Amino acid sequence: MSKLVLYDHIESQNGYKVRLALSNLKIAYEFRQMDMMGGEHKKDWFLKLNPHGKIPTIQDGDVSVWESNAILLYLGRRFAPNNLIPQDVTKLGIMLEWIFFETSMLQTSLQPLRFISIFIPKEKQDQAEVIKLKEKSMKALKTLDEYLSKHKFLADDYSMADIACYGQIFPAPEFGLDMSQFKNIKEWQKRVESQPGYIEMRAKVVA
Ligand SMILES: N[C@@H](CCC(=O)N[C@@H](CS)C(=O)NCC(=O)O)C(=O)O
């Protein structure tokens, strides 16, 4: 069986979500760092794997999967049992809610904020946009923090939903979000970080 390949970039938080899941599940894979500045992700060979030309993307034999959360769900089913996807249908629904929350709320607030702070020089940043994104981020984080006051993990047990949300949230202090008011998120982050196989985002990838 050929080894799974992950096309990624070490600084990608969406890629990190996939790396964290692979590490939690102890799945061996080949890490392929893409030259994003050189536009490698828009080359024809890569567009055959992901027509949107984005990372992360995985190749598993003849199958390629893109969109980080689709990859998480694929990996969970592909490497079941012990797949970080609840068997119980109610918990499955809750897990999916938080996975879609990550896509609709966090990927449209925290993700662009991080992008702006890393790649756009301060004097060129659109401050009105930054303020709007910060407000949206804080609103989403407040919702999550309130939920976590009554739940250890998003779907009660550690699942792909925790991985998806954690990957977007952990770098928040790096781009100036005041996380001090979110005590429940802080405690939840510690619980995620104590899971077997936990790795930090920039951890050397062991294939
Ligand atoms: N919704 C996608 C977002 C993927 C995404 O935005 N990837 C970024 C890196 S984190 C990327 O490839 N950017 C390059 C581009 O869009 O051209 C996912 O969850 O995988």
Count of helix runs: 8
Number of strands: 4
Rg from alpha-carbon coordinates = 17 Å
Distance between the termini: 15 Å
* Bound ligands: glutathione
Strand order of the largest sheet: 2-1-3-4
Sheet-strand content, in percent, reads: 5-15%
Poorly predicted residue ranges:
none
| Number of structural units classed as domains | 2
The description of the largest β-sheet is: 4 strands, mixed
Assembly type of the shown chains? single chain
The CATH topology of the largest domain is what?
Glutathione S-transferase Yfyf (Class Pi), Chain A, domain 2
Output the CATH class name of the largest domain.
Answer: Mainly Alpha
Q: What is the CATH architecture descriptor of the largest domain? A: Up-down Bundle
Provide the helix percentage.
40-55%
**What is the approximate shape?**
globular
Q: What order do the helices and strands follow?
A: EHEHEEHHHHHH
Structural class: alpha+beta
- Mean residue pLDDT: 95
Task: Give a written overview of the molecule.
This protein has helices spanning 13-24, 44-47, 68-78, 89-106, 110-119, 127-148, 160-169, 183-193, and strands at residues 4-8, 29-33, 57-60, 63-66. The protein is of the alpha+beta class. Strands 2-1-3-4 form a four-stranded mixed beta sheet, covered by helices on one side. A hairpin with a 2-residue loop joins strand 3 and strand 4. The longest helix is centred in the middle third of the chain and has 22 residues, at 127-148. The structure holds glutathione (GSH). Glutathione is lined by residues 12, 14, 41, 53-56, 67-69, 107.
